[in-house]
């Protein structure tokens, strides 16, 4: 039996999901799916993310931090939406640490921060954070994401 060789070009250009006997099936099984995804279709002055499942330091380093850095470098101000669509206990210690580092790195560039969550504790903590963070900080429920986007874009 031949050894499996991963072909990234074929994986990128394949338009259908491989069946178990297809040569890309093995690589698809091990493809990394991040639990933090950058939200699309937001106003140009808003950067937003949705977190689901377990959230790791790797995801902050790979998905969230580069996107926030890009906005900060391009505009000098950050309008930030974070939708926590998972239990707060699913954030690893490394993710919390990266979150804190990101906040300090851009300390004077935060214009508006909106945190949407279905957890009262997260929303209370966000409401407390508005007293220590520069810029404006507001909490929203998961049902108020559109309102959060509107608030951030003004």
TrEMBL record:
InterPro entries of this UniProt entry?
Answer: SpoIIAA-like, SpoIIAA-like_sf, STAS_dom_sf
Which Gene3D superfamilies does this UniProt record tie to the protein? Answer: SpoIIaa-like domains
What is the protein's given name?
STAS/SEC14 domain-containing protein
Which organism is this protein's natural source?
A: Flavipsychrobacter stenotrophus
């Amino acid at each position: 039996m031949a050894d499996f060789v991963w072909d990234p070009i074929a994986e990128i250009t394949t338009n259908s999901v491989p069946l178990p006997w297809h040569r890309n099936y093995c690589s698809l099984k091990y493809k990394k799916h991040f639990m933090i995804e950058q939200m699309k279709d937001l106003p140009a002055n808003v950067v937003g993310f949705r977190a689901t499942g377990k959230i790791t330091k790797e995801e902050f380093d790979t998905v969230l931090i580069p996107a926030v850095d890009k906005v900060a470098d391009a505009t000098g101000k950050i309008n930030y939406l974070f939708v926590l669509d998972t239990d707060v206990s699913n954030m690893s210690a490394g993710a919390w640490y990266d979150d804190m580092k990101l906040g300090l790195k851009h300390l004077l560039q935060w214009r508006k921060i909106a945190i949407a969550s279905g957890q009262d504790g997260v929303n209370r903590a966000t409401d407390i954070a508005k007293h220590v963070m520069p810029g404006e900080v507001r909490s929203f429920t998961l049902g108020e994401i559109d309102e959060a986007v509107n608030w951030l874009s003004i």
